[in-house]
Amino acid sequence: MNSRTFFEKVALMREAQKDYFRTRSRYVLRKSKAPEAEIDCEIVRPHNLNSQIYSLPQLKVGTPIIKSNFANDEKYIAELTQT
């Protein structure tokens, strides 16, 4: 989501929240939760991407990158990542 889309969704979310606090209607509350959930997901997304990047195993310098049938084998990965 680009910054313009994010801004527009936040504006819609805030308007829906204001509508709810004006009316205290259950229908409006349900309606306001959808954009709020979208914004919450967008806020968490970069954090999830960063945690995936940092959880990747670090290979030793000079380790050849090859595609093999053992790529998912924990012992094979452990051998590659030993310092």
Description of the molecule:
With 83 residues, the chain is an all-alpha fold. The chain is 70% helix and 0% strand. It contains three helices and no strands. Helix 1 packs antiparallel against helix 2 (26-54). It is elongated, with a radius of gyration of 23 Å. The chain starts with a helix and ends with a helix.
Keywords:
single chain; mainly alpha; 83 residues
Q: How would you classify the helix and strand content by structural class?
A: mainly alpha
Task: Please give the radius of gyration in angstroms.
Answer: 23 Å
The number of helical elements comes to 3
The sequence of SSEs as H and E is: HHH
> Approximately how much helix is present in the residues?
55-70%
